[in-house]
Design a protein that fits this description.
The protein is an alpha+beta fold. It has one domain (12-170): Peptide Deformylase, CATH 3.90.45.10. The protein contains three helices and seven strands. A five-stranded antiparallel β-sheet has the order 1-2-3-6-7. A two-stranded antiparallel sheet has the order 4-5. Bound molecules: ligand K1U and zinc ion. Zinc ion binds at residues 94-96, 136, 140. Belongs to the polypeptide deformylase family. InterPro entries: Peptide_deformylase, Peptide_deformylase_sf. Its cofactor is Fe(2+).
């Protein structure tokens, strides 16, 4: 397993749509393992392919809390097959937009279809933080960031802050 570099806004790869995976093979399994290691190291509760420059439809997640047993999830070609009419608001963060948080409203519950690491089709129902995180990660595969749900004013303020912080980090 290997730690991968996490891309930070405004890297153009974060705004691109990813290609579906045609075969779940050892190369894909290696990417998924590297993504989980990178996510735990960050630390984060999710990570999508484009955040490490892999433009494929792959995501990993673990929304278990510190007191629980780790619950890693690996999803290939994930798709939302239904969503609830009820919405919830969660203060989201993003490893590609470090140290910035904002309230985002999304469907409270979703149905998700995906391929597991053996290439077997799975379907799950998710709610709460898992539902929020899955939607956030699938958005990454379509080049959508949580800041795209905010006003242009808030989005640009966040982008400017991140660029300033990154510049300061590099010259420190
Ligand atoms: O996709 C990402 O950038 C990861 C992101 C996932 C996410 C967080 C919150 C709502 C929706 C999706 C993160 O993991 S940000 C870091 C974070 O939330 C966290 C870090 C350490 C402990 C607990 C949470
Ligand atoms: Zn993110």
């Amino acid at each position: 397993m290997a730690l991968r570099e996490i891309l930070i806004v405004p890297d153009p790869r974060l705004k691109q749509e990813c290609e579906p995976v045609s075969e779940v093979n050892d190369e894909i399994r290696q990417i998924l393992d590297d993504m989980l290691e990178t996510m735990y190291d960050a630390p984060g509760i999710g990570l999508a392919g484009p955040q490490i420059g892999v433009m494929k439809r792959v995501i990993v997640l673990d929304v278990s809390d510190d007191k629980e047993k780790p619950a890693p999830m690996k999803m290939v070609n994930p798709e939302i097959i239904w969503e609830s009419e009820d919405f919830s608001v969660y203060q989201e963060g993003c490893l590609s937009i470090p140290d910035q948080y904002a309230d985002v409203e999304r469907p409270l519950e979703v149905g998700v279809r995906y391929l597991d690491e053996n290439g077997t089709e799975q379907e799950i129902e998710a709610d709460g933080l898992l539902a929020t995180c899955i939607q956030h990660e699938i958005d990454h595969l379509d080049g959508v960031l949580f800041t795209d749900y905010l006003s242009a004013l808030k989005r640009n303020m966040i982008l400017k802050k991140v660029m300033k912080l990154q510049k300061a980090k590099k010259s420190a």
